[in-house]
Automatic annotation (TrEMBL):
It is an enzyme of class 2 (transferase). It comes from Roseovarius lutimaris. Residues 103-235 form the GGDEF domain. PROSITE patterns: GGDEF (PS50887). It catalyses: 2 GTP = 3',3'-c-di-GMP + 2 diphosphate. The keyword Membrane applies. CDD domains: GGDEF. This is diguanylate cyclase. The keyword Glycosyltransferase does not apply. PANTHER family: DIGUANYLATE CYCLASE DGCM-RELATED, REGULATORY COMPONENTS OF SENSORY TRANSDUCTION SYSTEM. Signal peptide: none annotated. Keywords: Membrane, Transmembrane, Transmembrane helix.
Length: 249
């Protein structure tokens, strides 16, 4: 069993508990070792010394345990969340997707339009600001139990739990409007962004990676048709490998 201290309140409780254990142990040892009259005579001063010595030591140990817990929590967060945007990593996305229940879900693959050109023209600092804002818009316009992840570069994947494909398309179009409505401000200059979206069904017990591939094909079609739009995966149109084309950038 591993003892964890997760707050300052628990640090204080830990210090009190340790001090009480030391106090009771000291009293029991005194009764066993010393004659009764001497034990009674030294009870108060010895108890005072035991508490005065044990309490600060226990508090110090509790503080170190709290710091260790906070460091572990930060490391765990860093492993499962993208450092730049704060959304989930690809690995964490698949972990959470594997925990889904029996309801049908929707996968949305989102990609910032012309991001390479944006980076080249305005610099990497502006690109980082755009990525952070883009991720924030995705997260803020999804429910708490949905999953938003950065898969690399300017590509993000959103998983909407317990959602139909028609509602998924509505959600993707809503995200597109939010992106258009919120420019990125760099040195007081408002820079507009748009994004393209591919939408696919993740059936109960389905393979998340297969759904992502389908949404990616729908995304390719959205970019090929002019970008700044959302399309649902259509097997009659989107099945097969993605062609190599500048339209997919």
């Amino acid at each position: 069993m591993v003892m964890r201290v997760k707050s300052q309140r628990e640090v204080r409780l830990f210090a009190v508990a340790v001090s009480l254990v030391v106090l009771v142990s000291s009293m029991l040892l005194r009764m066993l070792i010393l004659p009764p009259d001497l034990a009674a005579e030294t009870l108060l001063p010895d108890s005072f010394v035991a508490v005065m010595v044990s309490a600060p030591i226990a508090y110090f140990v509790g503080q170190r345990m709290l710091e260790a817990h906070e460091l572990a929590a930060k490391l765990e967060h860093a492993v499962s969340h993208d450092l730049l945007t704060g959304v989930c990593t690809r690995a964490r996305f698949h972990e959470r997707a594997g925990e889904l229940g029996g309801a049908s879900s929707v996968v949305i693959v989102a990609d910032i339009d012309h991001f390479k050109g944006f980076n080249d023209q305005y610099g990497h600092h502006a690109g980082d600001l755009a990525l952070r804002q883009f991720a924030a818009i995705l997260a803020e316009n999804c429910r708490a139990d949905d999953i938003v992840a950065r898969f690399g570069g300017e590509e993000f994947v959103v998983l909407l739990r317990d959602t139909t494909i028609s509602d998924g398309l509505v959600a993707a179009e809503r995200l597109g409007r939010r992106i258009r409505q919120q420019p990125v401000f760099v040195d007081q200059q408002a820079l507009g962004l748009t994004a393209s979206f591919g939408v696919a069904v993740l059936p109960p017990g389905g393979n998340a990676e297969a759904a992502i591939q389908q949404a990616d094909r729908a995304l390719y079609h959205a970019k090929h048709e002019g970008r700044d739009r959302a399309y649902v995966y259509d097997p009659s149109r989107d099945a097969g490998p993605l062609p190599m084309s500048d339209a997919a950038e």
